[in-house]
Amino acid sequence: MKIAIILGTRPEIIKMAPVIDEIRKRGMEFVLIHTGQHYDHEMSDQFFIDLELPAPHHNIGVGSGSHGAMTAEMLRGVEEVLLREEPDIVMVQGDTNAVLAGALAAVKLHIPVGHVEAGLRSFDRTMPEEINRMVADVCSKLYYVPTEESAINLLMEGVDPEMILVTGNTVVDACLRNIEIASRKSDILSEFSEDDRIVALTLHRAENVDNPERLRSIIDAILELEEFRIVFPVHPRTRKNLERFGLYSMLQDAAHVTLMKPMGYLDFLLLLSNSFMVLTDSGGLQEEAITFNVPCLTLRYNTERPETVEAGGNILVGADREMITGTARRLLEDPDFRRRMMEAENPYGDGHASERIIEETLRLHREGKLGMEA
Ligand code: UD1
Ligand code: UDP
């Protein structure tokens, strides 16, 4: 069985790494296709190094652009590669434009699509990611869902229950496998003192960083939270907008804020696991925070990861300055509140999602259930 893996951005590289490891461990045939949506060293190559991944067999090199232009370029490029490589299945992950283009190109060629992290829904169609997830799920044959809740979303949309596989999220596989390596290899913590209450901050969601009022409100909250040591590896999209809206220099001038380039995975994992709390609008970070028992304040008004909120480890604080500062300070002043957040149970599984993904795929292949007509 030949598996094609399509990825294009930082989180897809991280979350597909355990699946690629599993495929290689079993000596299976595979082809790795990078769309090139993320291309800066610290947004792409660094993760291949940190996670010891093989170089992609193909890089379509789409770079940045509008959604339409990028997706069109990817569709064309992926189709060409798939026609040449003739895989038995195409695997995509998550909700980026690579998922949209990869799933669509494959299904049109009658190649079955397996969607890793299928079934997530924010029910907010203004988010580009929501559209990508929904289209990918329409095109998919196999659904590797992280939780029962995502399985229910798909059942409500009429997906065949036999094709929904509750595997857990591969993000947990990546966290558990790499945290020990990170504590050996990374010296990121040497930059901080025991007394620092480290806050890992990440921000890149279009609805936050492309909107000057919302971005300003979040940055005001950050500037106000002087009792914390806020570490902010800045996503390229965010850096551009902070500079455009005149906010970057305000952060540079704040003694309690450390601005950095996007960090490598091992450094970031170690920093995150040693943080007092996480402030983020990232999808993956909501999952990683609960995996490491770190309270998460999510800078959004909805989430496609409601399990983290229901478990008690994540609070949606939106882009509201007072909500952000008030909740952060409550964590500082109310130890019981913080303890309850830290004790939230991880809904994303036991770190063996990638094994299940490959096992179940092989089983369904053996049973002849992956054909388009099956
Ligand atoms: C993309 C995904 C988002 C995911 C995020 C992970 C889509 C629609 N969005 O958002 O779901 O959460 O990746 O980080 O697929 N840029 C660089 N260098 C790079 C990459 C981007 O400078 O290596 C800059 C460019 O100015 C670009 C902007 O960042 O226009 C946005 O990049 P893009 O890939 O369009 O979306 P992300 O915000 O990264
Ligand atoms: N991450 C990283 N370095 C950073 C910021 C994030 O390695 O400076 C990792 C983080 O551990 C997580 C992933 O990047 O696994 C999340 O990516 P991102 O927030 O860009 O995308 P999303 O998950 O929102 O799609």
CATH topology-level name of the largest domain: Rossmann fold
Mean pLDDT over all positions: 97
**Major β-sheet annotation:** 7 strands, parallel
Number of H/I helices: 17
Query: Which assembly state applies to the chains in this document?
Result: single chain
- Gyration radius (Cα, Å) is 20 Å
For the record, the CATH architecture of the largest domain stands as 3-Layer(aba) Sandwich
- Tell me the helix content: 40-55%
**Overall tally of structural domains:** 2
Numbering strands along the chain, what is their spatial order in the largest sheet? 3-2-1-4-5-6-7
- Which small molecules are bound? uridine-diphosphate-N-acetylglucosamine, uridine-5'-diphosphate
Topology (SSEs and partners):
Layout: E1 2-7, H1 10-25, E2 29-34, H2 45-50, E3 58-59, H3 67-85, E4 89-93, H4 97-108, E5 113-116, H5 128-139, E6 142-145, H6 148-156, E7 164-166, H7 170-185, E8 198-202, H8 206-209, H9 212-224, E9 229-233, H10 236-244, H11 248-252, E10 257-260, H12 265-273, E11 277-280, H13 283-291, E12 296-298, H14 306-311, E13 314-316, H15 321-333, H16 335-342, H17 353-366
Parallel strand pairs: 1-2, 1-4, 2-3, 4-5, 5-6, 6-7, 8-9, 8-11, 9-10, 11-12, 12-13
Helix pairs in contact: 1-7, 1-17, 3-4, 4-5, 7-12, 9-15
Uridine-5'-diphosphate (UDP) binds at residues 10-11, 14, 202, 204, 233, 262-263, 265, 268, 282-285, 288.
